Amino acid sequence: MATLLVIHSSPNLTQSHTRALVAQHVENWKARHPGGEVIERDLALAPPPHLDMATIGAFYTPEADRAPQAQQAIALSDELVGELMAADELVIGAPMHNFSVPSSLKAWIDHICRVGVTFRYTEAGPQGMLGDKKAVLISARGGNYGSASPAFAMNHQDTYLRTVMGFIGITEVTTINAEGVAGGDAGLAEARQAIEALAEAV
């Protein structure tokens, strides 16, 4: 049975273009996988806490040596990693916030990038451990930060998310952006078309 993990990060719960585009992708996925499971994690409703010393210390303590307090410190991280590892596919909905991602999504990333769990260090450098998955990154932006835009150099969102995905081993990544939504619906229409094209291509 196929499993899709959906990560929502838009704080706009009712009028988010990003959430609407993610919902479109999820419905298409369900149509292709009628017996599949969808796991949804809404970071706006339950934002992960920023990492603290206790959590970081527990990350680097061998499991057999973790005291109860350390186990408690990484309980949420273990849950988030478990969801990710159980999924065959991942979709992240991330509006652009100040040229990058919402802070709740950054916190989620900090909890799922775990040495020895989702990546490891080798003689050749870091190696991701989740290479059997693929990801779709969906975003709506008020301005235009696409590759042909003069503002492209300020787009630290796409490069960051793709770097993180590659770091944990997910290299089959599709990025769909609705550009310039503050100025009209053209970018949304293009993004919707891209989502439909992705569904047809699978």
Molecular structure report:
The structure is a single chain. This protein has helices spanning 17-32, 53-59, 68-73, 75-86, 103-112, 157-167, 186-201; strands at 3-8, 37-42, 89-93, 119-122, 125-128, 134-140, 172-178. With 202 residues, the chain is an alpha/beta fold. The protein has a single domain (3-201), classed as 3-Layer(aba) Sandwich (Rossmann fold). The strands form two sheets. Strands 2-1-3-6-7 form a five-stranded parallel β-sheet, with helices on both faces. It has a two-stranded antiparallel sheet with strand order 4-5. α1 runs parallel beside α7. The mean pLDDT is 95.
Given as residue ranges, the uncertain stretches (5+ residues, pLDDT < 50) are none
Q: Could you tell me how far the N terminus lies from the C terminus, measured between alpha carbons in angstroms?
A: 17 Å
Number of helices: 7
Helix and strand element order: EHEHHHEHEEEHEH
**What class, by secondary structure content?**
alpha/beta
- Looking at this structure, what is the CATH superfamily? Flavodoxin domain
CATH C-level class is Alpha Beta
Strand content: 15-25%
Order of strands in the sheet with most strands: 2-1-3-6-7
CATH architecture: 3-Layer(aba) Sandwich
The proportion of residues forming helix, as a percent range, comes to: 25-40%
